[in-house]
Amino acid sequence: MRDSFLTRISTVGAIILILPSLASAQSLPDLSGVWQRDFPGNSSLVPELPLSAWGQERFDLAKPIHGPRTTAATEANASELMCLPMGLPGTYYRPRPFEIVQLPDRIVMVFEVNNFWRMIYMDGREFPEVPLHTWNGYSIGHYEDDTLVIETRHIIGWESETQQRWIDRLGHPFSDELRLIERIRKTDEGTLENEVTIDDPIAYTKPFTGILRFREMDYELAEFICQELMLSDLPEMRPGQ
After folding, report:
1. With 80 as the cut, is the pLDDT of residue 235 above it?
2. Peptide bond into 89 cis (omega under 30)
3. d(CA 209, CA 205)
4. Is there a domain that residue 2 lies in?
5. 100-126 burial, b for 16+ CB within 10 Å, e for fewer?
6. Which pLDDT does position 12 carry in this prediction?
7. Is 12 domain-assigned?
8. Are 117 and 130 in contact (CB under 8 A)?
């Protein structure tokens, strides 16, 4: 009898310890699923971007394949035509879906474009003391009520006229000093809203914020081989389309 009583007490104690963590997990927003852009690919975050002199000089060197300054693909210097990563938020502008996978200590974004993944660390860590710049940067996130807040730093920025890095598909540049803040939430069951703030003191005279929206897709990500698409005889299959 005594052993049975102690067993019940231990079981109740274990349940009490587990319940808070279960309640916490259940209160987290469910952002998982496959999403695709719901905005034009030849637009930008805001109508007028506050370019610095550095930013304007590099914007003038850009030869995009979309928007009012459209250039022939044979003359363009868009990174997507070189099968290079566009970085963020530029990748969101590609007409390809991405998937969000939520794990206890991190979130993984898997993009069909270039079959690349993005790791967002949710374990409370700080940014590395010694920054290592990468194509898509280093991302740390946390939840604020129904919103996922992500900060990304250490993204490889604009390098040369032939090594362009843009925040969109229109040619607006960013530097190595870009600090990207995203606030992602569901506005309804089928719509994801991303409030994006660009803070780049080299390329822009002040931070600015715009909204990107995505719709949920009943879809599985497909294989994406950039080199094969570039050689395709079907123009609609090429990355620039």
Report:
1. no
2. yes
3. 13
4. no
5. bebeeeebebebbbbeeebebbbeeee
6. 43
7. no
8. no
Q: Are 215 and 189 in contact (CB under 8 A)?
A: no
H helices present in 93-187, as ranges = none
Is residue 82 domain-resident?
yes
Q: How many structural domains does the chain have?
A: 1
Element (H, E) at 17: helix 2-27
Query: ∠91-93-99 over CA atoms, to 5°?
Result: 60
Query: Cα-flanking dihedrals φ and ψ of residue 183, to 5°?
Result: -125, 105
Indicate the helix (H) or strand (E) that contains 227.
Answer: helix 226-230
**Residue for token pair 């898509």:** 136
Give the pLDDT score at 162: 83
Spatial contact of 223 and 67, defined as CB atoms under 8 Å apart: no
What range does the domain containing 217 cover?
32-237
pTM of the model: 0.84
Provide the pLDDT for residue 19.
40
Strands 138-144 and 208-217: unpaired
Does residue 90 form part of some domain? yes
CA distance 105 to 18: 17
